[in-house]
Design brief:
mainly alpha
Length: 150
């Protein structure tokens, strides 16, 4: 009778040192996620405060129009607020990925559940993929800005 042996290259085992390192990394992912949530919320609040301050300044008849575009300060304040809100949302979304990944990795290690551990690794992949896309977009925008000034 033939036994079915799994001789996959990817069958890895976690020893005590790897488990400790993975738990530590998961804890740091949660810390990073919580800090990112706070930073994202602060970005949104700051955007709203800046827009309110600019609108208040414009309503005091210190109105200023940007000559080349004809935009008022209120319009520029709204654009700035939208920018801050988008940046805040990026931080909040990626922070949720980090917190979920940390929780799932810790849960998988605690219960010795491979599916939960795999879900945690998928969360880490999502976190890094999201930030990689954001960095690539920022690099392209910087390149466009530099090319536009040449």
């Amino acid at each position: 009778m033939e036994q079915n042996q799994n001789t996959s290259l990817f069958q890895l085992n976690l020893d005590a040192q790897n488990s400790y390192t993975l738990r530590s990394a998961a804890s740091w992912a949660k810390v990073l996620g919580i800090c990112g949530l706070i930073l994202g919320i602060l970005f949104v609040i700051l955007g709203i405060m800046v827009q309110a301050a600019i609108s208040r300044y414009e309503s005091l008849d210190y109105g200023y129009r940007y000559r080349s575009s004809g935009m008022s300060m209120g319009t520029l304040g709204n654009i700035g607020m939208a920018f801050y809100i988008v940046v805040g949302l990026v931080f909040v979304i990626t922070s949720i990925f980090a917190i979920n990944a940390g929780n799932k990795i810790n849960g998988g290690l605690r219960t010795n559940d491979q599916a939960t551990l795999n879900a945690g690794f998928a969360g880490v992949r999502n976190y890094f993929a999201f930030w990689a896309i954001i960095i690539i977009i920022l690099l392209l925008l910087i390149l466009l800005g530099v090319a536009g000034n040449l």
